[in-house]
């Protein structure tokens, strides 16, 4: 058997019509589209791994994936080859050879997401698949204060879905910040890892607290309680974007928050 060569790729996708990144039987997934495209121009079946296994409706601006192929010595323009075989809502922006031990998921030491909230009485028809519409104004000073309480190493049991299979609910949040522009609020989170639906439950809770000055609990209270019943509802998937991941030996795999916001 010939040796396999490992590659890392970066892709962007509109998650609206995907069931998520991970392969699912009888459902459209990002993984399946990438693997089908890879097979179409290499005639080889290769498993694709990713840094962040996004759910149905969640988007990605810089999703990192890896794959291995035999004898890639022939001159392949990987980006062009992928994109000629991919649908319009998925595009590959970068491919490079990496060490054989690299794994998009397990080699990452930090992951980043951004969540978009559109504030206003009238919802946007054109942004309905890309933002969470909130009709009530948010108290931004209170939001900023609550975000500070998220940073650090905590047991986030109160912010995990009932389907979450993670053995350890303790995660380290290195960044929780926001920027507001023209009634659009972008909230960014960076952590070593996230629990299933953790960000969406955090967002739902932050919105409830920030639109209700008389809220009984703070984020810190809810974290300490480890009680899902005290946290807010799970915010919709369509406002969530995977921004990227960080690795020791690979640079420029995530989109900076400000760069993303300026592109809107």
Automatic annotation (TrEMBL):
Residues 12-106, 151-247 form the Pseudouridine synthase I TruA alpha/beta domain. Its EC number is 5.4.99.12. It comes from the Bacteria. It catalyses: uridine(38/39/40) in tRNA = pseudouridine(38/39/40) in tRNA. One of its GO terms (biological process) is tRNA pseudouridine synthesis. Substrate binds at residue 113. NCBIfam families: hisT_truA (TIGR00071). Belongs to the tRNA pseudouridine synthase TruA family. Formation of pseudouridine at positions 38, 39 and 40 in the anticodon stem and loop of transfer RNAs. This is tRNA pseudouridine synthase A. The gene is truA.
